Amino acid sequence: MTIGKDLFKFTEEGIFEKAVNLYGVYELVSREGDVLYIGVGNIRDALLTHLPSGSDPIIGASYFSYEVTENIDEAEKRQKALLDDYLKKYGELPRFNRKIRKRRS
Predict the structure, then answer these.
(1) What is the CATH number of the domain that holds 66?
(2) Number of folded domains that form the chain
């Protein structure tokens, strides 16, 4: 399950080369192709926080994909739809979304 057609290397260089500075949803994917996290926000800024040296690292992420939305509200709606679809398909949320959703509940 990848939201974008392309997967990009999840490195600082990859983020600056491929990620846009716009609102949207993004996925962080393991080397094996497993979705680890579905996030929302300013795509470039948010991805940078998830690098190993960032403030909210996602350990094991090797690739990212993204989808641009018109605004943050649309991005949040799209994230919810993607998380709901993932939950229906796999019976649980992506690994790094589980702890976040528990905190919000």
Answers:
(1) 3.40.1440.10
(2) 1
State the virtual CA torsion across 27, 44, 41, 8 in degrees, nearest 10.
-10
Position 103 in a domain: no
- Which tens digits make up the pLDDT trace of 36-63? 999 999 999 999 999 999 999 999 999 9
Asked if residue 80 belongs to a domain, the reply is yes
Q: What is the DSSP string of the chain?
A: --SSS--EE-SHHHHHHH--SSEEEEEEEETTS-EEEEEEEEHHHHHHHTSTTSSS--TTEEEEEEEE-SSHHHHHHHHHHHHHHHHHHHSS--HHHHHHHHHH-
Answer whether 0.85 is exceeded by the pTM.
yes
Answer yes or no: is 79 within a domain: yes
Residue 67: domain span: 8-93
